């Protein structure tokens, strides 16, 4: 356990740390964050005993740091500093072996089998076994970083202090190094205290984070608590957006560049953008729209500038419809990565589409209904284009509002249908795409009571009804 209490001190030029207090538990992976010059390295130097402090206390396992001899400290703690390019021209294996120094007893300690095994093991764990005979000056920055980590691990410390350990490492070694540290922390109760500049890596791997600002602790808490958009924006003076990692429950912060190259003069999506052919209906937009869809391509949340409603024969049958759709798109001049695409078996001319406007708010809707031999459609595809900047809530509310309106139509038409329309609620294979231009003032809500929601509700109702009636008319021809 590391306990830091009221730590104050710095260099001859003045105080850098001002009353820092926190604790780190056994086996914890603890991250230190903060802007350049906030005092992170100074703090790490004081914990390692390399820099004296003026006031306060540091305890390791309830014993003051100052009571440990250098050798005791070296057995307990290893440090991986921010390395400069200076390096002694030792071979890799020799450099790693230096980590065993703290465990040698007396002047004439001979190299033991245990020392050898530990050095071989840590070289393997850090992926440098194949480099062992090379001189360290011949290595790349990332390779050298791994050698120094191996040296620190060879020390078999109980506490590992790291200053930006992933500096110089490529993506896969960043992950491997942090996976390894996490494993050692969990399995061997290694306590890891590490400085990070990459907030997202810190979020992914650390149990808790300490955020520093001007030599003080701003907050010590879990990544989800520390990495709040507003806090990071205030401390780093940079706009970020918080986005949850898609696979694990950790926040990730995304930078927002001043310009993303997706600018286009204000435009309004309406029927003039539609391009209706016999085998598809397409719509291309002047800039990418933010989309939420269940299309065959472009599913989920993304940014797309092509929208394709492909008309396939009734007997269309394909074992890999995603791959086949991608081929179709490419053959027809659409980039699959930029396209939301859906499929339908109704003739292109039977889709219903219309532009709706209410004051400042406008939307364009297209609905197809069909894909079955029955009288009632079993597949309803909906495109909803919103000319405006909408919030995350409004995206979800738009989908809810659209679904409610669609069900209203289906229930209403059940009464007028001569067959078992009740079976065909048009839900299971339906697709929806909600696309917003994300231009103009923010529209926060799209529930049925909001102006946008009302427009969506009325628009989806009338287009869905029209599409189903078109479909029925086609069937009776
Ligand atoms: N050896 C030194 N002598 C005098 N002042 C120093 C020394 N090292 C650092 N400082 C000063 O102490 C302050 C904190 O520096 P420190 O290196 O701890 O910050 P940091 O948060 O690690 O920064 P970075 O993110 O840039 O690595 C800075 O203003 C720096 O100029």
Automatic annotation (TrEMBL):
Pfam family, one: CbiZ
UniProt entry tagged with the keyword Membrane: no
Keyword line: ATP-binding, Nucleotide-binding, Translocase, Transport
One GO molecular-function entry: ATP hydrolysis activity
SUPFAM superfamilies: P-loop containing nucleoside triphosphate hydrolases
Coiled-coil regions listed in the entry: none
PROSITE patterns, per database record: ABC_TRANSPORTER_2
Domain (ABC transporter): residue spans on this chain: 2-239
PANTHER family: HEMIN IMPORT ATP-BINDING PROTEIN HMUV
Listed name of the protein: Iron ABC transporter ATPase
Species of provenance: Mesobacillus subterraneus
